[in-house]
Amino acid sequence: LWARCPHRIDNAKTIMLRAIRIVIFRIQMFAIRRRLRNVKLFVCDVDGVLTSGTLLYAADGLVLKQFSVYDGLGIKQIQKLEINVAILSGGDGSAIEARAKNLGIVHVFTDVVDKRQTLIELQSVTQIAIEDTLFVGDDVNDLAIRDLVSLFIAPANAVKAVRRKADVVLTRTGGNSCIRQLTDEIVKVHR
Asked: Which of 9, 88, 102, 154 pairs as cysteine with 166 (C-beta 3.0–4.6 A)?
């Protein structure tokens, strides 16, 4: 029967892999609870983290990005905990700046060429140490700041090199409430 229904085997494999990812995520979250509680600066990339990484171009050249409302609420929740939120993106700024304004995010850096230097300057201005900084990134250009943060987090859709260097790999993908998954964990450790 199973030989005649290969889709059942594929479904079983998919379910098993998802269960394994969730168990690994829970173990990783348990391991970083203390450091997660100390976060004072929450920095994230945009394309592939706050969005799926897909860019939509209108006929007039306008770039459209889709953001998750769940991520937005999660950001608002950690702001209530007096955690500074910052956006650090190499991408075009118009849609990013509009979303950041909507969420009350003050520290917004777009079209960034050198993420490392920008983060160093942000930490200096906010007077927040490496030990109190968390970053969420998904691509190889984000690895440049790995040693400037206490926690380096990757969404499920991050490239393999980033997932390997991450302290935690989220089970959700960018644009699909991966930030909310992380902010919910931050809120939990502050209860």
From this structure: 154
pLDDT reported for residue 72: 97
- Is the CB of residue 128 less than 8 Å from the CB of residue 147? no
Angle between helix axes 69-80 and 94-103 (nearest 10 degrees) is 50
d(CA 167, CA 32): 8
- Nearest partner of 152 among 43, 27, 38, 30, judged by Cα: 43
Element (H, E) at 84: strand 84-88
Q: What is the pTM of this model?
A: 0.88
Q: What is the DSSP string of 4-70?
A: G-HHHHHHHHHHHHHHHHHHHHHHHHHHHHHHHHT--EEEE-STTTTS-S--EE-TTS-EE----HH
pLDDT of residue 10: 67
Read off the tokens for 25: 């995520």
Going by the DSSP 8-state scheme, the letter that residue 160 receives in this structure is H
For residue 9, what are the contacts with CB-CB under 8 A and spacing of at least 6? 2
Q: What averages of pLDDT result for each successive group of 10 residues across the chain (191 residues)?
A: 57 80 80 89 96 89 90 97 96 89 96 96 97 97 96 97 96 95 94 85
Between CA 151 and CA 161 the distance in angstroms is 16
3-state helix, strand, coil in the chain (%, to 5): 50, 15, 35
